[in-house]
Amino acid sequence: MEPYVTLTIQNYVGYVEFFHPNRNSMPSDILLKLEQTIIEAGNNDSVKVIVLKSGGERTFCAGASFNEVIAIDDEATGKQFFLGFAKVINAMRNCPKLIIGRVQGKAVGGGVGLVAATDYCMATQYASIRLSELSIGIGPFVIEPAVSRKIGVTAMSQMTIDAETFFTTEFAKEKGLYSEVFATTEALDEAVKILSEKLAGYNSEALKEMKQVFWKNTDDWDTLLAQRAELSGRLVLSKFTKKTLKRFR
Questions:
Q1: pTM over the 0.90 mark
Q2: 195: closest CA among 102, 56, 61, 124?
Q3: How far is residue 80 CA from its own chain's centroid?
Q4: Residue of 65, 129, 157, 232 with fewest CB within 10 Å of its CB?
């Protein structure tokens, strides 16, 4: 299947879905389309609530596209790539609509950042999480503000340092990343549908104002995440990272 990002509207709920055949890893073009689609849904009067989901049955998002990261050969290109994740997170933060996360499987690296940037997240029991960046010579710099905001610095630090471990859905729920966990994808989809359509029937102005409350004290993120992208773009050029990524490709 070809990569895609789509927006489907049902009962005033905008379902933003992304997909890449390589475990839903995120190259630059998909990140750009995802950012644009979230902005589009946020500005669409027919959408009252947004659901962020990925295609496929297993991995929610494997993070950055290793093939594209390996090809980076200068700091400017590196910064531009990592800005892709920064811009998606900021699009989610600035979106006037509540964003419900629907996570059917594992989330790694930038995928954890996307989950953390949702306003409410629901997952299956198979949705374990990992911050693997230190193990490949960089760090979760761009997504750190979103992850720390959601689960706290202590849990973020634990995941970052234990970079080769998948943390369980129970851990993710206990720390506040997931609000609800379900045994099957079918049960997850039913719960997402019920909640999102219920929220779509609420006062849109109240939802918008509440979203601003949720994201208070994040006005500096446009600058902060750009600085973090620059840092990641420099570190990704290290011999350690290049050698490590070639083993994974």
A1: yes
A2: 102
A3: 18
A4: 157
pLDDT digits (tens, 9 = 90+) for 189-219: 999 999 999 999 999 999 999 999 999 999 9
DSSP for 1-45, written as a single string: ---EEEEEEETTEEEEEEE-TTTT-B-HHHHHHHHHHHHHHHH-T
| DSSP conformation letters of 145-189 | HHHHHHH-HHHHHHHHHSTT-PBPHHHHHHHTS-SEEESSHHHHH
Q: Which residues contact 85 (CB under 8 A, 6 or more apart)?
A: 26, 31, 64, 110, 113, 142, 143, 229
Each residue of 30-69: pLDDT tens digit? 999 999 999 999 999 999 999 999 999 999 999 999 889 9
Q: Can you name the CATH fold of 4-184?
A: 2-enoyl-CoA Hydratase; Chain A, domain 1 (3.90.226)
The pair of structure tokens assigned to 4 is 């895609």
* Separation of alpha carbons 37 and 163, rounded Å: 31
What single-letter amino acid sits at 148?
Answer: S
CB atoms within 10 A of CB 235: 19
Read off the DSSP letter of residue 107: E
Domain definitions of the chain by residue range: 4-184
